[in-house]
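Board notes, transcribed. Complex of a protein with coenzyme A.
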Amino acid sequence: MVEYRKATFSEVEAIHRLCNHYATLGLMLPRSRNSIYENLRDYVVAVEGNNVLGCGALHFVWDRLAEVRSLAVEPSKVKTGIGREIVRHLEKSGIEKGTQMFFTLTYQPGFFSKCGYEESDKEKLPQKVWKECVYCPQYPYCNELAFVKVLPGYQAPTNKTI
Ligand SMILES: CC(C)(COP(=O)(O)OP(=O)(O)OC[C@H]1O[C@@H](n2cnc3c(N)ncnc32)[C@H](O)[C@@H]1OP(=O)(O)O)[C@@H](O)C(=O)NCCC(=O)NCCS
């Protein structure tokens, strides 16, 4: 049975391997061990016994605003429902902290549509969101799409404040 839970130090190597496997295919940003250790509290993993089948992270960006990132499912297990369940766990943990808007930058629009996200104009996201872009091998020629899930009551911050 697949268990979904917060990542621990024991899963860092598996997260690193999964994310960087897909990063070499150009599907997501590479993640260093340093970045995974420093942001370990962001990560959720899907595990079966000792095997890590998937991972994902929720990173708080600004007031009530959080990014779903580093989402990856073991190649042999894609399209078995693990990705959606990881997103659900990340959203639950975000809502517990008061998150009202989730966003992601992705090459997987079909998947995020199935998770209830809608495509958004990238320009509508706060400028602070782009802080990490300079680390991306694709920068500045990025084709990622912005997808958002906005919960009732969310008021977008103006760029003047961030
Ligand atoms: C994208 C990814 C995380 C999706 O996880 P997954 O476990 O395969 O997805 P799920 O099985 O939970 O799929 C949920 C739904 O989305 C659909 N779906 C999954 N991947 C899809 C895709 N690439 N395009 C369109 N639909 C997709 C599934 O068919 C399913 O639909 P259904 O409800 O009609 O059955 C996974 O394929 C992956 O790791 N891809 C490579 C890394 C990557 O691109 N990560 C995203 C970075 S933002």
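The chain has four helices and seven strands. Residues 109 and 145 are 7 Å apart (CA to CA).
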